[in-house]
Amino acid sequence: MNKQNSIAEKVENIIRTHKFSGAFNDVAIENYKKKAIYYYNDKNFMDYNFLTDFHPYFLSDIFKLFYPIIPEEQKFEITLRVYSFIQTPTKNLLDIMIDIKKYRPDENIAPLREFISSDGVITIFRGTPKQENAPQKSLSWTIKENVAALYAINIPRTKSGYIYTAKINIDDVIAYITNRYEAEVIQYNSVYNVEKQRVCIPTNLNYL
Predict the structure, then answer these.
(1) pLDDT, tens digit (0-9, with 9 covering 90-100), for 82-110
(2) Are residues 93 and 120 located together in one domain of the fold?
(3) Are residue 99 and residue 162 in the same domain, yes or no?
(4) Structural domains in the chain (count)
(5) What angle do CA 105, 111, 112 make, to 5 degrees?
(6) Is residue 206 one of the residues assigned to a domain?
(7) Which of 59, 72, 180, 202 is the 20 to 30 Å CA partner of 65?
(8) Which domain does 37 fall in, by range?
(9) Which pLDDT tens digit goes with each residue over 172-202?
(10) What is the CB neighbour count within 10 angstroms for residue 159?
(11) Which class for 124: exposed (0-12), middle (13-18), buried (19 or more C-beta within 10 A)?
């Protein structure tokens, strides 16, 4: 079996074993296989169509197939594009997100230096509608407490939620993402001094 057929077979297996596989008929699967072969040959992963040509359900799993052949100088940027596009990372993408830290350009985290405190760390926040058992293993944090509050009580419009506050060393940051206006800090298992605060919508604020 040549490498093209191997890629196509792996893509088909990813789709057919996905929990939403019933949403894709044989014609659709054959189309995805052809697209996979195209990108395997062309290797133009910087093309935005790479994100839209594969369904978000299994984009991260297919991306894992291509990650080893992406040029090192492109791995960081392309991975962040995939992460931002699919919203909810899978285990496959989590592994890749951890790996791209070694490809992170210094200029990516340079804007965070203004937030370093006198003791040499950055305070970051994470908002969730429910308590988390291991928030330190959550990728997405922010330097803006008001953004965390939105995720705690406004997304998906709950009446109460939780804001986690933590410290992190700038060198432990995987990436800093500003293109979604969330001042997002990506990390994995590097925060410490994690504190939890329950937040509620004021009773006189009725917008639900």
Answers:
(1) 998 886 778 889 999 999 999 999 999 99
(2) no
(3) no
(4) 2
(5) 95
(6) no
(7) 180
(8) 3-103
(9) 999 999 988 899 999 999 999 999 999 887 5
(10) 11
(11) buried
Asked if 166 contacts 123 with a C-beta cutoff of 8 angstroms, the reply is yes
Of 46, 81, 103, the position where a domain reaches its end is 103
CA angle 177, 152, 111 (to 5 degrees): 20
Sheet with 184-186: strands ordered across = 175-177, 184-186, 140-142, 122-128, 160-168, 192-200
Do 96 and 136 belong to one domain? Answer: no
118 and 77 together in one domain: no
Spell out the residues 6+ positions from residue 143 whose beta carbon is closer than 8 angstroms to its own.
112, 115, 122, 123, 124, 125, 183, 185
Distance CA 95, CA 41 (A): 25
pLDDT exceeds cutoff 60 at 169: yes
Beta bridge partners of 122: 168
Q: Residues 135, 192: one domain?
A: yes
* Neighbouring residues of 44: CB distance < 8 A, sequence distance ≥ 6: 50
99 domain residue, yes or no: yes
CA distances from 41 to 2, 34, 35, 49, 193 (A): 12, 11, 10, 15, 47
Would you state the pLDDT for residue 208? Answer: 39
Q: For residues 99 and 113, state if they share a domain.
A: no
